[in-house]
Design goal:
Radius of gyration: 35 Å
Helix content: 40-55%
Number of domains: 3
Distance between the termini: 50 Å
Shape: elongated
Number of strands: 11
Structural class: alpha+beta
Number of helices: 14
Order of helices and strands: EEHHEEEHEEEHEHHEHHHHHHHEH
CATH architecture of the largest domain: Orthogonal Bundle
Strand content: 15-25%
């Protein structure tokens, strides 16, 4: 009769020894041999008439080993299901001598497995955390800049005689040359729009007062501001390795952006269906929208602080040696010991957060209902289509959501997002952060420093 013996071999690290007797695997082995003799297709013998001795000689060792390992695996997982030890991942098999499995001398065999145990721990008290709710308040200056930007983005181009200032847009023909200005053999020649404000100070000076038909020589990465270079490379259908190439830039046309007027037509374009008729109404709606955005960023940054507090202040130990070996062998692709060691700190933090969040979900009975999943998906679809006129009959939306609910990956991703929001909503309610006013730039910098 098969048995499992458990012994401790290290911190949160146990060994399971599975012992199987001949009675556990041999009957299944003999049955499998008979099945093979009935189905084997061997030249010179009719199907089902192959001698048992030949089947045993040809396939016996493989079948013998398979049935022993199948018995061991069955006993191992029966033990785990009955005893329910809190373990990480799957048991790791310890080295064993497969050559000792002798078909001519069936006997008792032992196989060892290593398991890593989850630690006992207490979640850190969030009410004691020193946290800050970094809040951005929308100012008149922020509103003025956004409205000016909206007017420019919605503006119309009007032709002008010559390049005057940063408000100009030029239609330019880029023709590839060498550094001396000679046409490059096989080089590109392509026309695209360029904002003068995206150019370097030296290039702006060269273009000043230039008209249609005038030409200057440029080197891309010296003529275009660094943060705008990728945009121009993409427009020219060039890769990043072309950033230092030389071009002849010929002005085809010079235009100037005429900002949109602040009138009812413009208000309806930027906020359709809101019924805005005055600049004051525009400013009120825009301020609310911007404030909602920054309030969401404030909450995200507070959640980041909560994450770090829980990770740093919740004390727990791990079976590090077991988990490192699991990293080496347990994933889709084997890793070297050096790779596993390098990845372990990040991996341990992921495990830690999983244990903490699972405990919070279980202890507080957090759940996501089907209705919440559907409502979230419905809102996402609505946002995707935006302000498009989809007609009055929206009955198609329900059937579309029903199809999404049958997509396991879609449902899983939505569930994870919602349950994570509930976990953070729970701990946020326990926290006692102080409030601080910060600028958008300061809050953005905080978010760039930590992204999870």
């Amino acid at each position: 009769m098969a048995t499992v013996v458990r012994e401790n071999i290290g911190l949160l690290n146990d060994k399971l020894t599975v012992k199987v007797s001949k009675a556990d695997y041999f009957p299944a082995f003999e049955k499998k041999l008979k099945e093979y003799s009935k189905t084997a297709n061997i030249p010179g013998f009719r199907k089902g008439m192959v001698p048992a001795g030949m089947i045993k000689k040809m396939y016996g060792n493989g079948i013998f080993q398979d049935e022993i390992l199948r018995s061991v695996e069955k006993e191992l997982y029966t033990y785990l299901n009955d005893e329910k030890p809190e373990i990480f991942a799957q048991p790791l098999p310890l080295p064993s001598d497969m050559n000792s499995l002798d078909i001519n001398n069936p006997t008792d065999y032992e196989f060892g497995f290593e398991i890593g145990l989850k630690p006992a721990f207490e979640i850190a008290d969030v009410s004691k955390a020193k946290l800050t709710r970094n809040k951005v308040e929308v100012t008149e200056d922020m509103l003025n800049k956004e409205i000016a930007s909206m007017q420019e983005r919605a503006g119309k181009l009007a032709d002008v005689d010559a390049v005057e200032d940063d408000s100009n847009v030029i239609t330019a023909l880029f023709t590839e040359t060498d550094e001396n200005g000679a046409l490059a053999e096989g080089g590109i020649s392509k026309e695209t729009l360029v904002n003068v404000k995206d150019l370097s100070a030296k290039t702006k000076k060269e273009l000043s007062k230039k008209k249609a038909g005038d030409t200057i020589s440029i080197q891309l990465d010296k003529a275009i501001e660094a943060d705008q270079l990728q945009k121009v490379l993409k427009a020219l259908e060039l890769g990043e390795d072309a950033s230092s190439k030389h071009f002849s830039l010929q002005i085809v046309k010079v235009s100037k952006v005429e900002n949109r007027e602040l009138n009812e037509e413009f208000f309806n374009e930027v906020f359709p269906g809101k019924g805005i008729t005055t600049e004051e109404g525009l400013r009120t709606e825009l301020k609310n929208e911007i404030q909602q955005y920054w309030d969401a960023q404030t909450r995200n940054q507070l959640h980041d602080q909560l994450y770090h507090y829980l990770i740093d202040e919740t004390k727990m130990e791990f079976p590090e040696q077991f988990l490192t070996r699991w990293l080496e062998n347990g994933g889709d692709k084997p890793k070297t010991p050096e790779q596993a060691k390098e990845e372990f700190p990040s991996f341990a933090n992921q495990l830690k957060w999983t244990l903490i969040s699972d405990r919070l979900i279980t202890d507080n009975k957090l759940q996501v209902t089907d209705e919440e999943l559907k409502e979230t998906m419905r809102n996402e679809v609505s946002r995707y289509f935006g302000q498009m006129n989809l007609g009055e009959d929206m009955s198609w939306l329900d059937s579309y959501i029903d199809r999404m609910m049958k997509d396991e990956k879609q449902v899983d991703a939505t569930y994870r997002r919602l349950i994570t929001e509930k976990v953070f909503g729970l701990v946020e309610g326990q926290a006692k952060p102080k409030e601080a006013k910060v600028t958008p730039e300061e809050l953005t910098a905080m978010q760039h420093n930590h992204q999870h």
